[in-house]
Amino acid sequence: MSLLDSASFPETQRIRAMPDVLFVLSPPRSFSSVVSTMIGQHPQMYGFPELHLFRGETLGEVVRMERLRRRLNGPPGLLRLLAEVRFGGQAGPGVRQAAAWVHDNVDRDVADVFREVTQATWDHLGEHRVVVEKSPGDTLHLTALERQVRCFPKARYLHLTRHPMNNRSSLTDFLDGQARRRGMGDRARVSTMEPILGWALAHRNILEVTRLMAPGQVLRVKGEDVLSDPDRTLPQIAEWLGLRTDAEAIEAMKHPETSPYAWPGPPGARGGNDGKFMRSPALRPGRVSQGDLAAAIDGGEIDQPAPTLASFQDMAHQLGYA
Question: pTM here?
Answer without folding.
Answer: 0.91
